[in-house]
Write a structure and sequence with these properties.
By secondary structure, the chain is of the alpha/beta class. The chain is built from eight helices and nine strands. It binds adenosine-5'-diphosphate (2 copies). GO terms for molecular function: ATP binding.
Length: 219
């Protein structure tokens, strides 16, 4: 469960997020839709405890990220500019994260297989990865801790058509397992076959929070 209440973030004279309130329920794939610059990434980063709100609260499973001791076992996220040391292999990166988050080592090869980074791909330096492979690695990081809440910032960027189908199936399965799945995009067309619920924002403010079917019927 994700609960955002009267959340605001200002950068100098820019208000990136303004008095935003919404809830994301488990068991659904919820889209986070808005044009570039609408405040999606800033909101996700506040939910992850990477950016401090100017006002309001951003809660995951009833707690702010910083106060939660479990890290990747609490919430997993694919962030747009996911910070991976390019000199490491995908496997070494995941192994380091598993160690610092007290996740069993065996989980690393499980998630590598799940995202399709097997064989030589798992051993290559990340800096040689295509955008699609980086996305797959970012998704592996999100899955690593088997968390109840997952957030994906523009996950379809750089994926080939087969990758897009795979990732949609993955999101549906995660939701079916009862997890909270929150997926950002600037394109309604991407949401149509991906999400069942929508949070729509523009200029940092809430525009709609309803089912995709209801939103699409607005005309
Ligand atoms: P989105 O993810 O929807 O494209 P962002 O959250 O990245 O939107 O950005 C929302 C607004 O906040 C934009 O106007 C952006 O320029 C601004 N912004 C985001 N991060 C920073 C920052 N670190 N410093 C200053 N302005 C920022
Ligand atoms: P390290 O032991 O390498 O410092 P951290 O857990 O601090 O490991 O995070 C390493 C990287 O993972 C950072 O780039 C951070 O932004 C990212 N990160 C941290 N928490 C999460 C999360 N819940 N989901 C996805 N990425 C995360």
């Amino acid at each position: 469960m994700i609960e955002v209440e009267q959340l605001t973030k200002r950068y100098g004279s820019t208000t990136a997020v303004r008095d935003l309130s919404f809830t994301v329920r488990p068991g659904h794939v919820t889209g986070f839709l808005g044009p570039n610059g609408a405040g999606k990434t800033t909101t996700l980063r506040m939910l992850l405890g990477l950016v401090e709100p100017s006002g309001g609260t951003a809660m995951v499973s009833g707690r702010s990220f910083r106060r939660h001791p479990r890290g990747l076992r609490h919430v997993g996220a694919l962030l747009d500019a996911h910070d991976v040391h390019g000199g490491l292999s995908a496997r070494a990166h995941l192994q380091a994260l598993a160690r610092s988050n007290r996740i069993p080592k065996g989980r690393v090869d499980e998630v590598l297989a799940e995202v399709g980074l097997t064989g030589s791909a798992a051993r290559r330096r990340v800096r040689t990865f295509s955008l699609g492979m980086k996305q797959r690695l970012g998704i592996a990081v999100a899955l690593l801790g088997d968390p109840p809440v997952l957030m994906f910032d523009e996950p379809l960027n750089g994926l080939d058509p087969e990758g897009v189908l795979w990732v949609r199936g993955l999101f549906r399965r995660l939701a079916y397992e009862g997890r909270t799945v929150f997926v950002s995009s600037h394109l309604m067309s991407e949401m149509e076959n991906t999400a069942d619920e929508l949070i729509v924002i523009g200029r940092g403010e809430l525009i709609a929070a309803e089912s995709l079917v209801q939103f699409a019927a607005r005309g």
